[in-house]
Amino acid sequence: MSFQAATDEFAKRKKTDLTHRINQAMGAELADLVIKNVSLLNVVTGTIDISDVAITGNTIVGTYGTYHGRKEIDGTGLTAVPGFINTHLHVESAKITPDQYDRLALPHGTTTAICDPHEMANVLGVPAIEYFFKSAKNTLMDLMVQLSSCVPATMLETSGARIDAEELAKLRNHPKTIGPAEFMDIGGVLGKEDRALDKLVAFQDGMIDGHLPGITGFALNAMLACGILNDHESTMLAEAQEKLRKGVQILIREGTICKDLGVLWPLINERTSPFFSFCTDDRSPLEIVREGEIDHMIRTAIRFGADPKDVYRVASWSAAQSFGLHRDTEKWQKRGLIAPGYKADIVLLNDFQNCTINSVIKNGKVVTEESFKARPHVEPIGYNSIKIRKMLPDDFKIPAGEPGEIQDVIGLIPGKLVTEHLRLSVPEKDGFLVPDASNDLLRIAVIERHGKNGNIATGFVKGFGFTSGAIASSVGHDSHNLIVVGASEEDMALAVNTIRANQGGYAVVKDGQVLGSLALPVAGLMSDKPFEALHDEAKALRDAAKGIGSSMEDPTMMLAFLPLCVIPNLKLTDFGPVRFVAGQDSGPVLLKDQRGSRPSALVA
Amino acid sequence: MSFQAATDEFAKRKKTDLTHRINQAMGAELADLVIKNVSLLNVVTGTIDISDVAITGNTIVGTYGTYHGRKEIDGTGLTAVPGFINTHLHVESAKITPDQYDRLALPHGTTTAICDPHEMANVLGVPAIEYFFKSAKNTLMDLMVQLSSCVPATMLETSGARIDAEELAKLRNHPKTIGPAEFMDIGGVLGKEDRALDKLVAFQDGMIDGHLPGITGFALNAMLACGILNDHESTMLAEAQEKLRKGVQILIREGTICKDLGVLWPLINERTSPFFSFCTDDRSPLEIVREGEIDHMIRTAIRFGADPKDVYRVASWSAAQSFGLHRDTEKWQKRGLIAPGYKADIVLLNDFQNCTINSVIKNGKVVTEESFKARPHVEPIGYNSIKIRKMLPDDFKIPAGEPGEIQDVIGLIPGKLVTEHLRLSVPEKDGFLVPDASNDLLRIAVIERHGKNGNIATGFVKGFGFTSGAIASSVGHDSHNLIVVGASEEDMALAVNTIRANQGGYAVVKDGQVLGSLALPVAGLMSDKPFEALHDEAKALRDAAKGIGSSMEDPTMMLAFLPLCVIPNLKLTDFGPVRFVAGQDSGPVLLKDQRGSRPSALVA
Known about the structure:
The structure is a homodimer. Helices cover 27% and strands 23% of the residues of chain A. By secondary structure, chain A is α+β, with helices and mostly antiparallel strands. The longest helix of chain A has 17 residues, at 9-25.
């Protein structure tokens, strides 16, 4: 703020605010809000001390003293801890809009969340980031919106949009962003390609989020030397240990498919606690509702055996300092401690060992259902994003090649995004390759849905465990083309056409009947309904998927990651099958270019 | 940096730099510099690990790997630790210019220093800050220049300049500043006076350094609630403990007069280490040369019993994170760790227990005497700042009042800035009050020297322990008027006139002879000579001061703080005697306004 600004209305209000802070801190004026007699878990000293906490406006003004307020909360028997920070997530994975994520996660104690609108941006481009900015202006929580840095994620798929360095750089000064989101284009960096280096150069003087799955040794050094600051992709203890030694801020992730806390928590101790934080990355709405969010990670870490003093520090101050949120800037007020001058983001706990939340104070106000109702409505964007013609069973037919030819088959590994690259012979019938449900061998197809080219790629997958029917999804990382798996072409076509009618989402079909569907009309990724409705629909969908005999807890979630070709070993994009062997391939490799090999799915 | 900038020459160089970083980190190209086989004291994990450290340009690009370089340093048997950060000092207290401070402190491992040009600013105003900016552009060390926030420090003295909120705000975007320097005007804040609140408002969205001596309870809460971030004035354990609990970043100080490390070091441990840093505040050149700087604090803390793993973290990463220097910004590159991506500021130690320095690497280059010689010369400013006429013995005469009247007398306490407020009867002779050297009662005078009004204030002081002669100084905190103490008016006049002839500095006089003098012609505060010459002159001066029989280790240093009326209990400014009783007075109180009571010292 310039001094000119300091003389204007805003500055006058600031001065009035300071005056109240001083008066209330001094006890010369009743505080706006006082939490009386609470057990303060001090993440600086590691002590638990009985204290009043006085709040003026959105700022803590007094601790370790006796205060009286115009409003008072009796904190007797409660423990106060600083609000939790989710350091990396894709809101889209919860299948709800940012305003519903706010309603869902804030009561779980997440007062600040750092999200990456990567999924929506792959469908819509910069307008998706702008939609998140607009939403973030109205959430009660502080939703920081990172700048999706790799749209598209690879050159081996058709995305709905591209965002180049110039467009990214234009967004950097927005008050709701910290910097570029997870920088996935490791091949681009190590190959010193312009598309990657231009982005790194544009953000050299800022914070750049990392994405370093299995990246170690020289490659890790090179990524860090370019300014990458953190990583949320560590899944192995030795991998995280190496990163820690090399100064990487480690974001421990507990998503729906990737659950890393059980492996990594032993690294958290008194000395290392400043260098860790918690994140959820991709977490399903069902799990958030059932288990919680960062609060779930806290109670899980403590149950595993981590010291609560370290765990609460990791969830608050450490996360804040990692992103510079522990200091006042032109963009944000400092947070991460219950201390005078800090943002009044406080979680009151009935039991700090189990992280059972009594209530949440955000910006000095107790969070209630009414506070959410008072937020302005932000109209979602990205309706009508499924731009395909009606599908026919023949669209999925695969002509047989040489007799007995061995095929590339995706082999699922339960609970992992990594797949096996199987080489199997596939049955033939009437000159076409056909699924063999009795051997758990199903047909898979990816259909470009952004109206760019109508590519249809097909292949086979093993491991879904159902014997008839089909499941389809418009969520398909990272380009979010349509993906469908099935035992029959007819059911596959019906499943895709159901999503087409719903303009996004999931469908489960069996024998010509739609057993269940979930509409995600916002960019084909998110519902526009309240999270409770979405939750019930998602539950029904999961039950429908069980109805076709899948042995998986949630086969739709697995489906969504089968086009994600930056993850080993075999995936399918709208270009065709893509191989990526870690430590062998320097990046994803298209095994068989299927483009143009069949009629396009474009609207006629 | 805008994207436009990202396409220009600078960005092209950045891209070339990134390319080299990647190649050298990958081992595909010889590194610019490699420290081979060194024991790396890792301040993240607290381990000591043998590793190579590869450096490209000014950036570390590889650790925990084997590297080869165009230049190599054999690190066998050496320990590498991150460069030290001095988080608060007044360069002027070393009596040398910033470029000489660079030469003096950098070889002691201080690769970053955060200074406050408060002394020079009180003489010259904004041009002093600009001189420091200009100097900082050319130092090898990173000299961050905080914006002196309280010029003048009080309304009860005549300073050479004033700096208001508007002027301060204009300087905030300078690349060499972090924010306002120690905010001393506690009375102004608690009294909600515009002069203080305007400054706080102008910097609400930034980092504001604190100055909180003995400030506890509600008053501490109020200061913190206004955004004060840190404090270097804690002298008592309980005081620092309270601040720590309240989230204050504690800058432990080891100056020449104030030595707080011995009291505060027990607070440093594995849990609290992120919240501490080291600073020197006011440290004499003699001590820096004899004992060192932050390196001295490190070895002293370890000798006291602190864990070296904590101590080296405090001296580097903790200090960096405290000021946000641990993250890349538009103003600076991240520092505080020996890790890829961080600024290559590294201290190589022969022995980490004793912090014996083998060599210092700053921005990827080994520091040598030649590297200092290559710096551009910055011409000092502030010559001819002693604007007084020649003094006469009669100028110091004090007419007696009522017979037997009790006088306010400053009582010195060895090793402290705090004084006693004595009430004594003073001998009379010929209608004037006179010193009584046999009872250690000397005359003291302060002479306004900025050419504003020529005020002369006089009084008595007890505790210097000399029986004849006089000592004078143009260093007199914080307004730096001339201050003189003596047993005779003649010697006092000669001492002041010697300083007048030297245009600043110190003089020791006895029986009409100048026993020693030290010229400080730069704003009357600093020498323009190399630190070695200044050091020898300062030593000679100290010996001269001993020659008049003072029992003090360095009476000139004590003299300089006698006008500092923000410190209890009785001081003397050019207005007259000023009382400040902590916990009783809300600010300094002028006991007797002497302005206009005698002929002015202005140049005729």
